[in-house]
Amino acid sequence: MLRLLGARGLLALGAGAPVTTGLSGTLAMAYPFLGVQWSLATLLAGLAGAVVLAAVLGRVLGTTTDPAGVTVAGERRLRTDDRAWLTLSWALGGGVVAAAMMRGMGRADQPPQAWDAVFHLNALWFVRDTGNASSLGGLAPMYADNAAPFYPATWHGIVAVAPGFDRVTEAANSSSLVVGAVIWVAGLVALARVVFPARALPAVLVPVLAASYVTFPDVAVSMLAVWPFALSVACLPGTIALVIATLRGVLSWQMHLALALGLGWAVVGVVLAHPSGVFSLLLLGLPLLTVLLARQLRRTARRGRPVLAWSLMAAWVFLVVGVITFLVTFPPVRSIMDYQRGGQDSYLPGVGSLLIDHPLIYVYKITSVNLVGAVLVATGVALTVRRTHARWLVAALVAAAAVTLLAAGPPEQPLRVLAGFWYTQASRVNQLLLVPAVVLAAGGGSWLARRAAEQLRVPVAATAGLLVVAVVLLTSGLRWTSHVQVMASTYTAYPIAWGTILEPEEIAMVDRAAETLPDDAVVLGEAVAGSPYLLHRADVQVVFPQLSPIPGSPARNVLEQRFHEWRTDLAVCEAVRDLGVTHVYADSLTFEDELNAKWEETTPGLRNITPGVEGWRKVDEGGHASLWEFTGCDR
């Protein structure tokens, strides 16, 4: 679509994913109103329509063939050797990230065990089952249809219909590789290309430098398990690259308009992937837009209209302050910003973590560091400030670092409210910092390679190759051990971080449930013990499809609090019959055991259920868990 509108090369490649995301999310919300079921065929049909429309618009505007010969990503097209080096760099950087993520996962069908992962996997199952991927209430089944809230379901819609996957677990795990090794890298490469249009080397270095960080994608798709947020972050650099290309002054009005159309869909993609994308774009994009506007207004002032220039700048500042004030006071945003989260007494641990790229979440052993990345970023900052080129990157870097430290630091800091746009979670905001950091590091690394080549009188390719080798060695193989450690912490490193949900034997039992339980089975069990996995892995209905309580369901509340009193409490059996419960998932694992079971205070009636003799029949068992047919309330 972008190529038909006039974008070319790396820019079209890097901005393609956010445009696809925007189109997919919009189609998913429109289809229920049109009575169209969500499927791979209907998604592709909608996307094909967008491509046809782009072809028509590009032809009408005359931008498809780019008759003026102006490239919108760089001052010259990449040479064949540049493309070859970029391919090798991407194979190395993207390959290491993907391979390490797979190593940490263990196997394609290994279920991640994190709070949000349970929700997202079952949400994928419901999208497949209902044919509804709309963010406007499409995930209502996750709330037993008692509520139909807005929830960003764009990632769910795309992954649910991805071809070649029998189960959603494999599709979700595979999406992590695509987000981290393809979409993220493509966006950063595109951004480096438009920031340094005269040189190809920064873009070539980007994939390797991006792989030297574990903050993204590893933390996002494993420990946090926030795939929608990860997709939004991965789409950011490509979208910002399209902003720069769209606003380049050397383009014709037709090209400006054509690229602006693509940019609009890319912005929609970032926001529909996750609403916090609005704030992410503001955090990283405001410095860019302010710099571009300031340059234009400076030219206006020099042409004899200083009053107009200052008035427009004042209006811009007023607009920015007004938008931020509105967002801060908007009730849905306030509900996010008021999320209470602890912090550290000092900012120093956060500063140290930023310098070595140590995850700002959980207590991970330091197995590798990225000091060379910090050095390259500092070099890029110094060069950018001295040359007054792309200084917005420095402003974006400082802003992202400041908000990250606010989230990680003392809770009593009044300015900490600024981190509330990202749930006051340092590990989320920190991911945004990598966008300017990687591009600045690429610029610094490119300069060092060229300076070394001049001093040694050797080709730049040789010194650039030596720089890549140095980065690989000084980061312990592009942080291989850290990549694996973070991914494994919610997949295979028992005990699982923050509490084990399923042991390996229990995963096997859950998978067998597709054969051991009847088609009309409805399973009750403590959610944090693993019962929700029965839905997306074995197609077995469960009372609790997520770990959070289901609002507006008194029957579920009764079972959470008092199911263990089923013999004496008539309300319990009434709730069992109302919900159609036929089987019970029991788990004897406790938090004090070796594997440290995940713990939830709000479900005392379901914790460590001890099946009786009368009304209970064991169906299967695995590890500390077991499945029972329950007929105790059939009277």
Low-confidence stretches: none
What's the overall geometry?
A: globular
- Taking the alpha carbons of the first and last residues, their distance comes to 63 Å
Helix content: 55-70%
Number of strand elements:
5
* Largest sheet descriptor: 5 strands, mixed
- What is the residue-averaged pLDDT? 92
Query: Counting H and I runs of at least 4 residues, what is the number of helices?
Result: 24
If strands are numbered along the chain, what order do they take across the biggest sheet? 2-1-3-5-4
Order of secondary-structure elements: HHHHHHHHHHHHHHHHHHHHHEHEHHEEE
Write the layout of secondary structure elements.
Layout lengths: L1 H4 L3 H26 L5 H22 L18 H26 L9 H16 L23 H7 L7 H28 L5 H11 L6 H4 L5 H20 L6 H21 L3 H26 L3 H24 L1 H7 L10 H9 L14 H17 L3 H18 L17 H31 L3 H15 L1 H13 L15 H13 L5 E4 L7 H6 L2 E2 L11 H9 L7 H10 L3 E5 L28 E7 L2 E6 L5
Parallel strand pairs: 1-2, 1-3
Antiparallel strand pairs: 3-5, 4-5
Q: Could you give a short description of this structure?
A:
This protein has 635 residues and is mainly α.
Walk me through the structure.
The structure is a single chain. The protein is mainly alpha-helical. The protein has 24 helices and 5 strands.
